[in-house]
């Protein structure tokens, strides 16, 4: 930090500490990342920024100097990277693995900087750091020029909507501050940037190690007339300023009702401005009202804008809850349940096409399925590649279907209403980050047709409660045998039933599906939809499918009203099922003639809490069928099923 600025700061602290703290509190905040290829000097640059902005103290400086000597840096100079590379594994390998966040401040602005890893295998970590950034500093080693990871990270930054890009040509001291080499690198990057849609960027020659053009202009680059890095960071426009110009968008985080006289809807304003008296629309319902109060912890406001957390009160009793979006009445966002999106896959386990994941977009949480990717993107060449799934760190364009309408805007317009994550329902792992492009036209043209005869009316006519009895177990466990006996007993008692058998369905409805994991998921999804339609008609439906994956059984359960899905685990040991081998399938699987066979080279996930478990080692099919019928008709299913 320049000496005159340091003196002015120290003087203000000495004269009026309250004025200093107030000025510091009201500084704007810039979030930015450093990224690029391995060993381009990202951590060293951040360490230099922290050191020059005096955001380290005497004890930290002493430790930094001690560690620099211990790791053997050149001469006795400080290794600034040690301020950021905090993990032992990072120090041992000399690389950044995880995202390291650091805070520092200058006289004009506060900063949060994310030091992102350069290795391709840590792309998901880089995406995490970039997802909230206003600006990206993309470093290039002046000796190496524009590399594959430079291109990869530039593409990801553009994909994630970072509008401000700095090309920092680093280690200029190692090439003698050669202007010709600098100009060559900038020209190479400009050609690539134009290909991926980066229209503007700010280039500068720097040395993170020596400090050239970081906080003050360097005498070593008299041919460079642009700003220093800190000066640019202090003056670049923030996303918040851009967001304030858009229409009102407030995702509702919770409903505030401390007493009967007060009801407000709280959240962080994502974009736009709201004033008392403004007309607003609540989505997805589309109901409208007028803002009567803007409430904060420090009292009511006349006006609030993007970046502020507020509670809005309405003139009318409008149905509004967490996940809804409050918007300007005359400029609402879109609502849809089908989209095209870009996915960055972030999990070691590949995408399961057709499997139901949680989709979290702002405060909205819905179930969503992903279709087979339209294509994957080779970010090094920008080539579109055919893909059946997405592996770790892969990027692809896909179509998504949600189980209910989602309030959204394209990611290019709004990070808040266009950016989402996918969460595995079983493990709660975040498996992907995504950016919505647009709603699929078919979603806008297909509307639900209201019908006069309800599912309750269908069931009442049949004098029964609809249900799906879902038999699951290994091949040869006895699912079809027991399900058939159950249907015969129910039919003899005058009940309206239907049995969906795994093999029979594959002769017609699902004859186009194979036995890959993706095909099995789609097989169960279709059967679930058919079973749901049959319960709408008032039927008691039996299904006999291996259905090896918990996620798909839970998906079908979620399709139905509470209590109508009865999971029946036909529990037969693999050795016993293989001994029976009525259809000769195990023999083929063992011989390698039948791939993806459950229990042999494809897993079976046994139910943890089924409604009924049938132990075929101690119970005959006849006894099991009798017990299941008793369960269905004996009142035990009625305790959680709605009365017709």
- Compute the average pLDDT: 85
Taken together, the total number of domains comes to 4
Number of strands: 29
Shape: globular
Strand fraction equals 25-35%
For the record, the CATH class of the largest domain is: Alpha Beta
How many helical elements? 20
The helix content, as a percent range, equals 25-40%
Named at the architecture level, the CATH assignment of the largest domain is: 3-Layer(aba) Sandwich
Q: What would CATH call the homologous superfamily of the largest domain?
A: P-loop containing nucleotide triphosphate hydrolases
Largest sheet: 8 strands, antiparallel
Compute the gyration radius: what is it? Answer: 31 Å
> Gap between N and C termini, in Å?
76 Å
> Could you list the spans in which at least 5 consecutive residues all have pLDDT below 50?
1-8, 86-97, 636-644
Can you describe this structure in just a few lines?
With 644 residues, this protein is α+β, with helices and mostly antiparallel strands. Helices cover 30% and strands 27% of the residues.
């Amino acid at each position: 930090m320049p000496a005159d600025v340091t003196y002015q700061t120290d003087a203000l602290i000495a004269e009026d500490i309250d004025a200093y703290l107030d000025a510091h509190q009201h500084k704007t905040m810039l979030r930015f990342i450093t990224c690029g290829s391995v060993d381009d000097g990202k951590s060293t640059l951040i360490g230099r920024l922290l050191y020059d902005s005096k955001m380290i103290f005497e004890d930290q400086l002493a430790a930094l100097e001690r560690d620099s000597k211990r790791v053997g840096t050149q001469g006795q100079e400080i290794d600034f990277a040690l301020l950021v590379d905090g993990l032992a594994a990072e120090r041992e390998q000399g690389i950044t693995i995880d995202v390291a966040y650091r805070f520092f401040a200058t006289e004009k602005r506060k900063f949060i900087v994310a030091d992102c890893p350069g290795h391709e295998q840590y792309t998901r970590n880089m995406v995490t750091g970039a997802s909230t950034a206003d600006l990206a500093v993309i470093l290039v080693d002046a000796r190496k020029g524009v590399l594959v990871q430079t291109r990869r990270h530039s593409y990801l930054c553009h994909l994630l909507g970072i509008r401000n890009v700095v090309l920092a040509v680093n280690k200029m001291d190692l090439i003698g501050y050669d202007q010709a080499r600098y100009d060559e690198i900038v020209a190479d990057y400009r050609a690539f940037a134009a290909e991926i849609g980066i229209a503007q960027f700010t280039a500068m020659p720097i040395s993170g190690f020596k400090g050239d053009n970081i906080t003050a202009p360097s005498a070593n680059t008299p041919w460079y007339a642009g700003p220093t890095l800190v000066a640019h960071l202090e003056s670049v426009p923030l996303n918040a300023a851009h967001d304030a110009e858009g229409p009102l968008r407030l995702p509702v985080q919770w409903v505030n009702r401390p007493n009967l006289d007060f009801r407000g809807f709280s959240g962080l304003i994502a974009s736009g401005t709201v004033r008392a008296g403004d007309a607003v629309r609540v989505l997805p319902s589309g109901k409208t009202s007028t803002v009567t109060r803007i409430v904060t912890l420090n009292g009511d406001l006349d006006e609030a804008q993007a970046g502020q957390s507020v509670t809005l009160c309405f003139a009318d009793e409008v149905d509004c809850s967490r996940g809804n979006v409050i918007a300007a009445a005359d400029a609402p966002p879109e609502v849809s349940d089908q989209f095209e999106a870009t996915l960055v896959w972030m999990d070691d386990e590949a995408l399961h096409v057709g499997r139901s994941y949680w989709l979290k977009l702002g405060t909205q949480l819905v179930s969503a399925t992903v279709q087979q990717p339209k294509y994957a993107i080779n970010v090094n060449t920008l080539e579109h590649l055919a893909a059946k799934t997405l592996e770790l760190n892969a990027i692809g364009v896909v179509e998504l279907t949600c189980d209910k309408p989602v309030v959204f805007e394209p990611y290019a317009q709004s990070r808040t209403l266009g950016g989402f994550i996918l969460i595995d329902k079983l493990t709660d792992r975040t498996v992907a980050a995504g950016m919505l492009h647009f709603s699929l036209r078919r979603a806008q043209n297909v509307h639900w047709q209201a019908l006069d005869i309800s599912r309750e009316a269908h069931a009442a006519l049949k004098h029964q409660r609809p249900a799906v009895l879902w038999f699951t177990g290994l091949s040869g466990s006895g699912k079809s045998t027991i399900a058939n006996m159950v249907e015969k007993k129910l039919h003899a008692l005058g009940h309206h039933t239907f049995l969906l058998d795994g093999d029979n369905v594959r002769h017609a409805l699902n004859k186009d599906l194979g036995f890959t994991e993706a095909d099995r998921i789609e097989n169960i999804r279709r059967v679930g939809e058919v079973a749901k339609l049959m319960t709408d008609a008032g039927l008691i439906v039996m299904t006999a499918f291996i259905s090896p994956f918990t996620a798909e059984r839970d998906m079908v359960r979620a399709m139905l009203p509470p209590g109508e899905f009865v999971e029946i685990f036909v529990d037969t040991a693999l050795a016993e099922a293989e001994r029976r081998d009525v259809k000769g399938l195990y023999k083929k699987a063992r011989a390698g003639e039948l791939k993806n066979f459950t229990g042999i080279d494809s897993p079976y996930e046994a139910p943890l809490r089924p409604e009924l478990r049938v132990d075929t080692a101690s119970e005959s099919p006849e006894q099991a069928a009798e017990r299941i019928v008793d369960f269905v008709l004996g009142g035990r299913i009625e305790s959680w099923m709605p009365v017709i």
